[in-house]
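Translate sequence into structure tokens.
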Amino acid sequence: MLSPLATGICTGAAVAGLVAGGFEYASLWSTSQIFGRTLVAPRRPDELAITFDDGPNEKWTPKLLDLLACWDVKATFFLIGAYAEKQPELVRRIASEGHLIGNHSWSHPNLALTGKSRVQEELRRTSDVLEQITGSAVHCFRPPFGARRPAVLRVAREQGLTPVMWNAMTDDWKEPSEERIARRLIEKIDRVCRRGFAGNIVLHDGGHLDASANRGPSVGACGRLIEHYKRTHRFVKVDAWSL
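Result follows.
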């Protein structure tokens, strides 16, 4: 039998584990609303939003834009501010072709572990650069890694930004097969649509550790998804869901 001291230590450890697990779920699980309201997807199972994170990428974002233009599909691009500042013409092209541009922070830190003043600067600086380049206000924000805490969501809303998460993502940033990326996403999209929700899909046209990361598999997977769903679903930008 454990002594009272040992029992107390074990109980304390168990509680600490539950607290840590709860924080991880609330801050990182894409559909969690525990730390505050975020936009995921409405009950519109016939709609899909394709979103791209971590761009712009000088090589792969133009190829992606060409692909989207061929299919006449509009998407949402959550851009890293430091990359956007170096690629203003590419950012202008994204906007001019009718796609929605969102804030993905300046340098892609884990905002759940970042001080409030830096969170404010990461978001403000990015929105300022994007608005200077495109001439249009930015209204949506996706936290890097999906990581957030109540203060992060408050800062975003204070700056006029709606936090946007997702309900369909796979590891396209490291998966070399476009077929496997597309197949895994199709499984997830079909699941959320069967539950009565729209699909909010994440792919990556850039890489937060490498501005010129190879995103060929992600671009190829995007084409497969569009071809698979074009006849059965309507593709929208996330602002169609009341930002």
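Note: The chain has a mean pLDDT of 92.
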